[in-house]
């Protein structure tokens, strides 16, 4: 599903959502907004990080019964820093067909927008929160000679930037927020410059 701008949805996705017997969504309230915008009235069932294991079997039984089910997350691709991976794994393990419909993705959009383009990059997602685990991961990431894509919540951004500076040095950095939305912004500079800026300007948006 779109990561912000509702126009960033493919014709194929709209067709599948209209044809599905059921739409399984991370947050049915968010998905209903999208469906209403496009005049789609299919049934919805929730599947989020707290109920994915318990709901996966229920969904698979429906697939076995011949139902067509569309899986969506709130923004972007299910299973990529979003619920859905366990359901996908179990569906494949049951030798049931899985088809992925490509669409908007925050990580790919951000790496192109950053200008830090290289033949390779690493998508990491969210860093661990526990201090010891975080330090171990940064020690491992320090050796990589390619751009690293991280996700972070606004209220933790400054602390994370300071931690990155401490462990990785004063690297080139780009920080994007509100991608595809009205207040989309990308700031580019060194980690030190980003720390100075966000020390004086509270991060807003996603």
Order of strands side by side in the largest beta sheet? 2-1-3
Helix proportion: 40-55%
The coarse overall form would be globular
What is the number of helical segments per DSSP (H or I, 4+ residues)? 8
What Rg is obtained from the alpha carbons, in whole angstroms?
19 Å
Structure description:
With 206 residues, the protein is of the alpha/beta class. It has helices at 11-19, 28-37, 52-64, 85-93, 106-114, 131-141, 157-168, 191-200; strands at residues 22-25, 44-46, 69-72, 122-126, 148-151, 172-177, 185-190. The strands form three sheets. A three-stranded parallel sheet has the order 2-1-3, sandwiched between helices. Helix 3 packs parallel to helix 4 (85-93) and helix 7 (157-168) runs antiparallel to helix 8. The longest helix is centred in the first third of the chain and has 13 residues, at 52-64. The two termini are 16 Å apart. The mean pLDDT is 95.
List the helices and strands and how they pair.
Elements: H1 11-19, E1 22-25, H2 28-37, E2 44-46, H3 52-64, E3 69-72, H4 85-93, H5 106-114, E4 122-126, H6 131-141, E5 148-151, H7 157-168, E6 172-177, E7 185-190, H8 191-200
Parallel strand pairs: 1-2, 1-3, 4-5
Antiparallel strand pairs: 6-7
Defining traits:
alpha/beta, 3-stranded parallel beta sheet, two-stranded parallel ribbon, 8 helices
What's this model, at a glance?
This protein is an alpha/beta fold. It contains eight helices and seven strands.
